[in-house]
Amino acid sequence: MLRSSRFTPMAAVLAALAWTAPAFADDVDPSTLYEVSTEGTSTQVKAGEKGVFVLSIKTKEGAHVSEEAPLKLDVKGTRLTPAKEKLGREDSVSKKAAGQEFVDPRFEVPFTTAAAGKGTLDAKLTFFICTEKICARQQKAFSLPVEVL
Q1: Is residue 57 within 8 Å of 51, Cβ to Cβ?
Q2: Regarding beta strands 44-45 and 135-148, do their DSSP bridges make them parallel or antiparallel, or are they unpaired?
Q3: DSSP secondary-structure letter at 30?
């Protein structure tokens, strides 16, 4: 009996460590599960011509953008006029391939220019990034300069 009482506190410590260890392993910073890119956005456009604002979300292995939670992209221009200012998942140009479970959203928003000078495109993206264990709301803001020639 004396022997079992010695191991009881040790067993309690081991049980506590086993219980909390997975919690530490699951603490993932959601912002490390994806990258957002504006590569392909027009940075120089002739006055009166069209440019395009491109925004894509590239998820990392084991993560995906939630298809159930809201996804919003708000785009505004200074000296530029986006073809659409409020976009959602249905405006993504990325479509699922046969057998594909999730697709990374990509937006291509045309914009027009009126006069030469410096303009900006401001965008605010809100979406949920998910894994098997978490689903976290993410919000990103962008301000991109565009030179109108």
Answers
A1: no
A2: parallel
A3: G
Residue 69 DSSP one-character state: S
Token pair, residue 2, equals 């004396």
Instruction: Specify the pairing of strand 72-78 against strand 135-148.
Output: unpaired
Q: Which residues contact 100 (CB under 8 A, 6 or more apart)?
A: none
Tens digit of pLDDT at every position of the chain (149 positions): 444 444 444 444 344 434 433 443 457 899 999 999 999 999 999 998 999 999 999 999 999 999 999 999 999 999 999 999 999 999 999 988 887 888 999 999 999 998 899 999 999 999 999 999 999 999 999 999 999 99
Q: Measure the CA–CA gap between 50 and 124, rounded to whole angstroms.
A: 21
Gap between the Cα atoms of 74 and 126, Å rounded:
9
- Pairing of the two strands 117-130 and 135-148: antiparallel
Q: What is the pTM of this model?
A: 0.78
